[in-house]
UniProtKB/TrEMBL annotation:
It comes from Brachypodius melanocephalos. One of its GO terms (biological process) is exocyst localization. GO terms for cellular component: exocyst. This is EX3L4 protein. InterPro entries: EXOC3/Sec6. One of its GO terms (molecular function) is SNARE binding.
Length: 532
């Protein structure tokens, strides 16, 4: 009988085993073994072992179905006939087996073992899929999943086109194999997800589960329809495992964001160190960091949307959180650098950053409909701080020149009085490249500061001057005021109300007639009531 089993002559082998089983049962019932129960146990065990060998043969045939390039239809149909004959020979019964009879006459449940063999075959097919190590290929997981879907799709095509024909409809062969592969893949992915995966690998796994698995590239392939159905399959990953995978991806992305933003900061610091001037676009200074940040947002939010809306929301929240953390760090670096040295690119970069952060807010609102209230608060504080350091540096530059006004050295100097205007212009000329209304407001502040400080300087008590000196001072003040005003007006200042201030005082200084002096003073007080 064993030889028949080995030669896969299963129907003949089964007939012999059944005959042996019936004979043993008959002898048992005739109490032939009452004086020699060990002999009965031996014969019963022989029958059981032979049936087990048949079950092993069934398992071997099932596993060979997908392993062998050519399908032995005769072998499969013979196996199906064998299972049917066994079920007919051992009808399912709830009668308890007699003591000591073991499984004699009992159903062998080979159809159930057939299903278990399919499950085991599917498990082995999944585990057999090539998988390189991370050291061998950075795309190891992507390649592995690609091989998995390719190989198993070929298996399913073989089942649909060839294997299915060998079974009666009641076996639901395609459904059985699909479920077996589904469970095997689920178990395999669950194991993969427990390993140490980087951000890219986590995304690969998420995307494959969410998009590839049911797509036309795998189970939804047109050639598999309509036999391969996926509607009733359970989730490939449990909700807990799926959530863990998404959370791991978010946690991994968080580390990546710190690297991305760190690289943006390093790039800007290099520009400062190498004195690279800011870029200009449509007459506005522009920094690349706004586009860089929006690109980072866009890439991560888009790929997360490919997985699920909930992951997209989580990713957007992470993006915003990391951005809100980055901006104060960036501000601190810029403030430290600008305080440490007097660089000609300070103002252009300051203007560019204020412009770019404004663009960033509008860009994020437009592209992602995200709430930017907290971001705007942080950027408003940054703008105030940048404006303050701008004005501080301007004052530091202008104060020494303002203090020279009306000194003997200033009066005796014969060159055109342009030094103050030039010093102020180093700062103010860049404000025309700042987005409105900020640029105009800050330029107005500069204009007001220069005039106010100039006036403060000239009305301080001084040594007495003779008529010629007063007239010389008057002319020089008017000329310097004209140079300052023209410079700032050319740069876009609309503070026309400041124009007469220095001229009024220059007229007072240069006039010797008291009535005219009173008229000039009256005019000055009318135009600038707070000068009293």
């Amino acid at each position: 009988i064993n030889e028949l089993i080995q030669k896969r002559q299963l129907l003949e082998a089964f007939a012999s085993i059944k005959l042996m089983e019936d004979e043993t049962i008959s002898e048992r019932d005739s109490e032939k073994y009452s004086d020699n129960p060990q002999e009965f146990v031996r014969k019963s065990k022989d029958v059981d072992l032979l049936y087990n060998s048949m079950a092993n043969a069934i398992q071997s045939i099932v596993e060979g179905t997908l392993e062998d390039p050519t399908l032995e239809h005769t072998m499969l149909t013979s196996m199906v006939t064998l299972i049917a004959r066994e079920e007919a020979a051992h009808p399912n019964t709830d009668n308890a087996a007699r003591p000591g009879s073991d499984l004699l006459g009992r159903p062998r449940k080979w159809r159930q073992q057939w299903r278990e063999a399919i499950n085991e075959s599917a498990r082995k097919r999944v585990l057999k899929t090539p998988m390189a190590s991370r050291e061998e290929s950075t795309s190891w997981l992507d390649l592995h999943l690609h091989f998995l879907q390719e190989h198993l799709r070929e298996d399913l095509l073989k089942i649909k086109s060839s294997v299915k024909k060998c079974y009666p409809e009641e076996y639901q062969v395609c459904d059985t194999y699909v479920e077996a592969f589904h469970n095997a893949i689920a178990s395999h992915l669950q194991e993969l997800s427990q390993g140490p995966l980087d951000s890219g690998e986590l995304y690969t796994l998420l995307y494959w589960v969410a998009n590839t698995y049911h797509s036309e590239h795998f189970l939804g392939h047109p050639e598999l329809k309509p036999e391969v159905k996926t509607e009733n399959l359970s989730l490939l990953l449990t909700p807990a495992d799926w959530d863990k995978l998404k959370n791991d991806y978010i946690a991994s992305a968080k580390g990546n964001f710190k690297t991305y933003f760190g690289n943006i900061l390093k790039l800007e610091v290099k520009k400062w160190e190498k004195k690279v001037h800011s870029e200009e676009e449509e007459n506005l200074y522009h920094a690349s960091l706004s586009l860089d940040i929006q690109t980072i947002f866009g890439q991560h939010v888009k790929v997360s949307r490919n997985i699920s809306r909930s992951l997209e929301t989580k990713m957007l929240e992470l993006c915003m959180a990391e951005l809100l953390e980055f901006i104060p760090r960036f501000e601190q670096e810029f403030m430290v650098w600008s305080t440490a040295q007097d660089s000609p690119i300070f103002v252009p970069h300051l203007v560019a950053y204020i412009n770019s952060f404004h663009d960033l807010v509008s860009g994020l609102e437009t592209a992602f409909q995200v709430n930017t209230e907290q971001l705007q608060e942080i950027l408003a504080a940054l703008t105030r701080n940048f404006t303050n350091i701008f004005l501080t540096k301007l004052k530091t530059k202008a104060q020494p020149l303002l203090k020279k006004v009306l000194t003997k050295k200033w009066i005796l100097a014969t060159e055109r009085p342009v030094s103050l205007a030039l010093a102020v212009s180093e700062f103010s000329e860049h404000l025309q490249h700042m987005r409105e209304p900020l640029g105009q407001d800050l330029l107005h502040e500069v204009h007001k500061y220069v005039v106010k400080e100039y006036v403060t300087q000239v009305i301080k008590p001084r040594w007495k001057m003779n008529k010629n000196t007063r007239q010389q001072v008057s002319r020089k003040m008017s000329l310097e005021a004209e140079i300052i005003h023209n410079t700032l007006l050319d740069q876009g200042s609309d503070a026309n109300w400041l124009l007469p201030a220095i001229d009024h005082i220059a007229n007072i200084i240069g006039e010797k007639k008291k009535d005219k002096i009173k008229a000039y003073v009256k005019k000055l007080c009318q135009d600038y009531p707070d000068i009293r």
